[in-house]
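Saturday, quiet lab. Running sequence design on the structure tokens for the scaffold JK sent over.
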């Protein structure tokens, strides 16, 4: 049994126990799995391609790839300070970069990007955040602050206000 199927079965059993309702599909209903949706057009952590980055005068920061050549390859990241805020920038997918704040929402420890997981991790208590700052695991009560990013082929653009 795949891990996803086992988790789904467990969640359905839990919901049935808590609500007293049958979680199996009724006649004419389908058993749709929200985890199996086609999200191929969803790019998390990147701006919509139809919404280009602004200018430096509008608060966008341009980070040339020549300053960070490691960022040409996917699953690399670095930390920097922009407008007085410490952020982590990661190359999370093809031409897709994510920029999140580095302060864990649980206890304020420094979160860093882990290439092997393509996630942001807090070493203090094990909070794990996805590439869009969402909480995946651990004690963190809130997502990380996320800053819009764009990529023009030569530079990463980030808006940190």
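Result came back. Writing it out in full:
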């Amino acid at each position: 049994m795949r891990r996803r199927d086992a988790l789904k079965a467990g969640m359905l059993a839990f919901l049935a126990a808590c609500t007293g309702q049958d979680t199996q599909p009724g006649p004419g209903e389908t058993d749709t799995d929200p985890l199996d949706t086609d999200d191929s057009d969803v790019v998390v952590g990147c701006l919509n391609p139809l919404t280009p980055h602004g200018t430096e005068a509008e608060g966008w920061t341009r980070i040339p790839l020549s300053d960070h050549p490691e960022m040409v390859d996917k699953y690399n990241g670095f930390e920097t300070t922009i407008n007085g805020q410490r952020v982590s920038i990661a190359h999370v997918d093809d031409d897709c970069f994510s920029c999140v704040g580095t302060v864990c929402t649980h206890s304020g420890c420094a979160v860093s990007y882990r290439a092997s997981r393509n996630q942001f991790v807090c070493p203090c208590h094990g909070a794990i955040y996805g590439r869009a700052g969402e909480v995946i695991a651990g004690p963190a009560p809130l997502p990380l602050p996320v800053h819009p990013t764009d990529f023009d082929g030569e530079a990463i653009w980030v808006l940190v206000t």
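Notes for JK: The chain has two domains: 3-36, 56-159. Residues 56-159 form a domain with the Rieske Iron-sulfur Protein fold (CATH 2.102.10.10). Ask whether to fix the surface positions before the next round.
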